[in-house]
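request received
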Amino acid sequence: MNRLLSIEELNAELLIELINSAEKLKAERSNPSSLPLQGQTWAMIFTKSSTRTRVSFEVGVRELGGSIMFLSSNDIQLGRGEPIKDTARVLGRMVHGCIIRTFAQQDVIDFSEFGNIPTINALTDEEHPCQILADLLTIKEILGTWENKKVVFIGDGDNNMSRSWIWAAKHLGFQLVIAAPKSCFPPQEFMAKVNAPNVSLTDDPISACKDAHIINTDVWLSMGQEGQADKEALFNAYQVNSELLNHAHHDHIVLHCLPAYRDKEITEEILEKHASTIFQQAENRLHAQKAVLAKIAK
Ligand code: CP
Ligand code: NVA
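response:
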């Protein structure tokens, strides 16, 4: 493994190895047993905003012994139209690895191929693999396992988080229900490609949440979709609130990748009630990404 571009590209064995490694790195954070990035310099290229991803990678690379530079697309020639493949061919000769947050999945694929260095997808329109690793780690810590659990993703069924969850369910076999307005279902071709009988789609949030162990939501409008009021209006019945959670399993947890828009996709009450889980999930970005870095660094 020399890159993490998607959950799609992983398999059950690799997912479990990364989660186990993240647990170990978390436990030994104050007394690390090795520094796999010692002597290395990594770059981050972000064309979208970030708090968690940026900070967790900056801290993570340093904690593994490396150094890191943040490159906003506004500051480098990429922002003036230099192709991603040329940016990759330059950085590939100078840095040891690159972490990219951008719009098109093809851009992270191109970077990885033209740069020929370890490359990590820090969120595209299609996938958010680092977040899913942190989410799975959080589930394992709190519930012990995802096996035989019912997971619900409620919100935009056709965004980076829902797609990455769908691939995770495909690999790991847990039951996943995507609850979304019909026009925000993942496309049929995508579902056919995944071909996972354990993943179902519904536009009924109540039936989706029935007896669910893990209720997971995300913003209704992803980065790049700001101002799409027509789309946002579709989601009013899909808010994670106390009424909806009455239908969940009595021992459920609530996940949110953050940032959260209170009283839109989740109420203030529910976010605060589940804050210890949700901020543990945010912290786990650091540990999960250190596991990825340690695995793919050359
Ligand atoms: N969840 C997540 O990726 O957060 P940021 O956008 O703040 O990085
Ligand atoms: N779906 C969201 C995730 C944010 C971490 C977005 O792309 O904006």
